[in-house]
Amino acid sequence: MTADELQSLIAAGLPCDHLQVAGDGRHWEAVVVSREFEGKRLIQRHQRVYATLGARMHTDEVHALSMKTLTPTEWAAQPH
């Protein structure tokens, strides 16, 4: 799987204001900014992203995914 493919999978299942994915084909890092994260705890945000990947998280297709999950307000408050 490529970073573009992983990014497309997440974007297809979750409306994102910003989405950035990088990795080596097995170990991934993602920055996901979505209005759907409003009022949700960190674990709920991560579960929402994992849900977009479905079975890929249970196979070696996506071995590891480290995430920053932010609301648009949280994203705007961070230096870029």
UniProtKB/TrEMBL annotation:
PANTHER family: BOLA TRANSCRIPTION REGULATOR, BOLA-LIKE PROTEIN 1. InterPro entries: BolA, BolA-like_sf, BolA/IbaG_stress_morph_reg. Belongs to the BolA/IbaG family. It comes from Caenimonas aquaedulcis. This is BolA family transcriptional regulator. Gene3D superfamilies: BolA-like. SUPFAM superfamilies: BolA-like (SSF82657). Pfam families: BolA.
